[in-house]
Amino acid sequence: MGKHRASWKRWVRDLEKKPKEPGGCCLFQMIFILILTLVAYNLYHWLWPDLRHHVLDKADLAVTFYKDIEERGPLAYGKHEDQKLYIYRDADAPEETALPVLMFIHGGGWANGDPDAYGYVGRNFAPKGFVVVNVGYRLTPEGKWPAMLTDSAAALKWTSQNIAKYGGDPERIYLMGHSAGAYNAVMLGLDRRWTRKAGLPDDTIDGVIGLAGPYDFLPLDSDNAKEAFGHVRPLAATQPVRFARRNAPPMLLATGFYDETVERENSKALFDALAAKGATVRHVVFNDMDHNGILMGLASPFDDSRIGDPRVKDAVLTFLRERVQEAARERTRAERRARELRATRDAQSPAQDPAEAQASGDIQPAGG
Question: How far lies 65's CA from each of 85, 160, 298, in Å?
Answer without folding.
Answer: 21, 29, 16
